[in-house]
Amino acid sequence: MLWPVVELSFLDIVDNHKDTSCTEFYADYAKRAQHAETIAILDFLTEMEGLLDPFTPYNADCLLESVFLGVQPEYGGRGIGTTLFKITLDLASLLYKGQNVKISLEESSLPLEPIPQIVTSILTTFKTQQITKRLGFDLIKKIYFKDVYFNGRSYGSLLRDDNLYFTLECKKIE
Q: Domain 7-172 belongs to what topology?
């Protein structure tokens, strides 16, 4: 039996003092992507990373970023997105308290360092923005899609709604 893909989520630990970043990850992944739509999304995320600074407001050196959170519409309203954010916060809290819960894709151990001090997410939908609001995330920045361009057209015009926006939201780990 094949199980449907219900959700997608990706977690990344970003150390503010290292040369590697999500921006480089997105750019490298875009080079390997085969579909124009995928490349456009990754280019958008790369551009957004350059506009946002979650480290400064929290005086943080390291963050755990939740990206690509999505739940298939037919599975919406069941608490799946909220559960994924809660699991992310729980993992961040364990790391912050010194418990190494990191596992590589090869299932080998990874070092505890760096330890994130905040959890961040770039949110592009009202539903995910409502989840983080309920979970006590702070709104750091709001950018309207009409102010971001792709191939000479604003994302607002492409989505046919200039009032849509994305947010950078953060929560201090305790």
A: Aminopeptidase (3.40.630)
Question: d(Cα 100, Cα 45) in Å, to the nearest integer?
Answer: 29
What gap in Å lies between CA 27 and CA 101, rounded to an integer? 28
Q: How large is the C-alpha radius of gyration of the chain?
A: 17
Residue 125: both structure tokens together: 């939908």
- Closest alpha carbon to 65 in 168, 174, 136: 168
- How buried is 94 (Cβ within 10 angstroms: 0-12 exposed, 13-18 middle, 19+ buried)? middle
CA-based nearest residue to 53, from 164, 145, 143? 143
User: What's the confidence (pLDDT) of residue 151?
Assistant: 75
What integer pLDDT is reported at residue 159 of this predicted model?
A: 75
162/52 Cα distance (integer angstroms)? 20
**pTM for this model (two decimals):** 0.78
Q: Which of 45, 37, 39 is nearest to 65 (CA)?
A: 45
Give per-10-residue mean pLDDT for the chain (174 aa).
53 63 69 77 72 84 83 85 92 93 82 89 88 95 83 79 84 92
